[in-house]
């Protein structure tokens, strides 16, 4: 039997598993059409004319991130929490603020990582270092000079006669 950490679940399966772990109080707050959409997108196998759903089980005492909840499932749960489970407008505003702050931090990291000025600067610096190291290697290496043998000289003279 496979370890649950190595099994890849559909995001809807993961969301449904979280809903089952949370219990009926949370499930009852979600509109029926959204629950139907979630359950209709869960992959299943048929056995004896019954649908067998592959839904993970979650321990709410542990972090869902540690248990391998996907980013897609986390996003769906965020929307459910914000739209149906938040108890006040203040809580909704706080969630939006947290998400906006995370987006700003992510954008700053992207700007820092993909800033064209720093990308080219790093490439120029590494190129200069490579050129300097190659020059040092060339200075230190010995050049082997080959003298032509008598046989090679004779063949070269004969070929030069034909070229005229």
How does this model look, in words?
- The protein is about 65% helix and about 5% strand.
- With about 160 residues, the chain is mostly helical.
- It has a domain at about 10-115.
- A two-stranded antiparallel ribbon has the order 1-2.
- The chain is elongated, with a radius of gyration of 34 Å.
- The chain starts with 10 loop residues before the first helix and ends with a helix.
- About 10% of the residues are buried.
The quaternary structure here is: single chain
User: N- to C-terminal separation?
Assistant: 84 Å
Give the biggest sheet. Answer: 2 strands, antiparallel
Low-confidence regions? 1-5
Q: Treating each run of at least 4 consecutive H or I residues as one helix, how many helices?
A: 7
Write a compact overview of the structure shown.
With 164 residues, the chain is mainly alpha-helical. It has helices at 11-22, 24-27, 32-40, 71-85, 89-114, 116-140, 150-163; strands at 44-47, 50-53. It starts with 10 loop residues before the first helix and ends with a helix.
Keywords:
elongated, two-stranded antiparallel ribbon, mainly alpha, 164 residues, disordered N terminus, single chain
Topology:
Elements (H helix, E strand, L loop, with lengths): L10 H12 L1 H4 L4 H9 L3 E4 L2 E4 L17 H15 L3 H26 L1 H25 L9 H14 L1
Antiparallel strand pairs: 1-2
Helix pairs in contact: 1-4
